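Chapter review. Work through the record for ABC transporter domain-containing protein before attempting the end-of-chapter questions.
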Amino acid sequence: MIEVANLTTAYKKKKVLDDVSIMIDKEEKCALIGRNGAGKSTFIHSLLNLLPITNGKILINGIDHKRNEWKKHVAYLPEKFQLYPHLTGEENLRFFASLNTSKIDEKRIEEILKLVHLWEARNVKSKQYSKGMLQRLGLGIMLYYDAKILILDEPTSGLDPMGRADILSILRSLHDKTILLSSHHLDEVKQLCTHIAYLENGKITKYSIAEFESIFMGEGKR
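Structure tokens for ABC transporter domain-containing protein:
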């Protein structure tokens, strides 16, 4: 579903990603991890064609990422998702849903709000939402489009333990999705993901969860 070959990205003449190649298969759940500044966001933004790449090729569902057709297969949740505080949760969802379609799917709106546990709070203005509720609303907006590939940048960042648990529970329920998410929390990764893409010194190496634990956990690497 996501194929990266010989990807190189530089920032101010310094290589951030250096000849990276990785494959993420259909319905795989893969975590992108690495130290702060390792280039996780750069990798995600390169996939989404938000940053220019110096060299390499990226295919998303078999489509070159420089062509717009790949966008219908992908939904992206950035670390900081901008919502409209004066709108209710449901109004926010409706607004973003309307950007890609001329007709709102009423049944889908209800399904999504229930999935992200916001049905009872659907008529509350989002400025009154907690951080966890805002993150679930952002996730709901992303899920409305029913894309097969989900890319999430630090989806539990800044959340309390209950908020993190809510997000992980929702993501675990998405059995038919291919998921790539960046995270600093190995405990969350182990609950959700099948694989880890470890980014270090501009290189990415992919491991199964068991392989990663066997190689790194005893050495104290995070």
